[in-house]
Amino acid sequence: MVTGSSGFIGSNFVLDWLRCSDEPIVGLDALTYAGNPENLASIQGDSRYTLVRGDISDTNLVADLLLRYAPRAIVNFAAESHVDRSIHGPEDFIQTNIVGTFRLLECTRAYWSGIHGDQKASFRFTHVSTDEVYGSLGPTDLPFSELRRYEPNSPYSASKAASDHLVRAYHHTYGLPILTTNCSNNYGAFQFPEKLIPLMIHNALAGKPLPVYGDGKNVRDWIYVCDHCDAIRRVLEAGRVGETYNIGGCSEMKNIEVVHALCDALDAARPRADGSSYRTLISFVRDRPGHDRRYAIDNSKIERELGWTPKESFATGLAKTVRWYLDNPAWVSHVTSGAYRQWVSTNYGTRPEVVR
Ligand code: NAD
Ligand code: TYD
């Protein structure tokens, strides 16, 4: 069972899974603004995938689904996932990320208590989380290891940290066979254009300003989404029960470097009519409140224990991503109609340009 299966990473996970295996998946997704069944249009009618529209907080529904489908594992992607939205409206983050994870854990515990033998021994609950729970690094600090103290700074990361703690507690208290992954910033196909990379591609192609927060020197580690999905499959297959695995793309970059790389890729793939570079659209705007300065991941545990390393470099992953957005304008135009415009006005309408 895959929760959040119609979101960005969840849908990539389902597609990759069914490319490698015939084992069926039941998806559970509330289809919020971020959940888009169109992401899985290519497997429409495939009997290996069933989508159930519903909320992870809906105890009756989740309990029914667990009894009906008797999954051998749950992979929990369902969440509110955007930091800026959590700043404008934290309530949904508390509800889904904390209360929702709690209810999902309760249902899973009841289900797991009622199964026996091999089915019980091999069952796994995999919780997909973020590196943002660790807080912000200084320029010379060592990358986040799994032993790093939790210091979340945004309502989003605080709600994910709370969910990680609940997952941990269900293992220590009830013995639930859990695995937790904490991954860095993903990018790739089907990412909603509220996040940095798809937002910049979308704005650039529309000739709109590219809004870089603050001085553009905040650092993130970027991972191509299929590498993340591959790592989750590996953790599910061979991770030690009760353990946490950090997952990173080995690509630490300043935001402004990411935006420059995107502009250069677009200049090559879709030159502007007037011959100018997309870089001329870059606009530095007022910073995000509480903006974490740097994230970086130490991958050594997952490398050592599970033999996983990312396959894509930032250059190869970005080239695939830019190509996907250029080839899928209909997908972009569907998700950027209606409520998306309201979000752009809420987040960017009141954010003045800062001259640097
Ligand atoms: P997303 O916002 O694209 O997708 C979230 C999905 O969850 C959507 O399909 C949405 O409809 C669904 N959902 C939301 N609330 C729900 C609820 N109450 N019940 C059922 N479904 C619900 O997010 P994403 O980028 O795909 O992230 C997936 C997971 O990975 C999240 O838990 C996120 O914290 C984590 N993560 C994301 C990144 C990243 O860079 N995007 C990095 C590390 C970890
Ligand atoms: P984002 O994609 O929102 O991911 P996260 O906040 O979870 O890391 O943002 C990535 C980085 O890009 C982050 O440092 C904030 C910055 N950013 C901008 O500069 N401009 C934007 O319009 C957005 C959405 C993000």
Helices and strands in order:
Blueprint: E1 2-3, H1 8-20, E2 25-29, E3 49-53, H2 59-69, E4 73-76, H3 83-88, H4 91-113, H5 117-122, E5 124-130, H6 155-174, E6 178-183, E7 185-187, H7 196-205, E8 210-213, E9 219-224, H8 225-238, E10 244-247, E11 252-254, H9 255-269, E12 282-285, H10 300-306, H11 314-327, H12 329-335, H13 339-348
Parallel strand pairs: 1-2, 1-4, 2-3, 4-5, 5-6, 6-10, 7-9, 8-12
Antiparallel strand pairs: 9-11
Thymidine-5'-diphosphate binds next to helix 7 and strand 8.
Verbal overview:
- β1, α1 and β2 (25-29) form a beta-alpha-beta unit.
- The chain has a domain at 2-192 and 225-253 and 291-312: Rossmann fold (3-Layer(aba) Sandwich), CATH 3.40.50.
- The longest helix has 23 residues, at 91-113.
- The chain is built from 13 helices and twelve strands.
- The chain is globular.
- The strands form three sheets. Strands 3-2-1-4-5-6-10 form a seven-stranded parallel β-sheet, with helices on both faces.
- The model has no long low-confidence stretch (mean pLDDT 97).
- α2 (59-69) packs parallel to α4 (91-113) and α7 crosses α9.
- With 356 residues, the chain is an alpha/beta fold.
- The protein has helices at residues 8-20, 59-69, 83-88, 91-113, 117-122, 155-174, 196-205, 225-238, 255-269, 300-306, 314-327, 329-335, 339-348, and strands at 2-3, 25-29, 49-53, 73-76, 124-130, 178-183, 185-187, 210-213, 219-224, 244-247, 252-254, 282-285.
- Bound molecules: nicotinamide-adenine-dinucleotide and thymidine-5'-diphosphate.
- The site of nicotinamide-adenine-dinucleotide has 31 residues, from α1, β2, α4, β5 and β7.
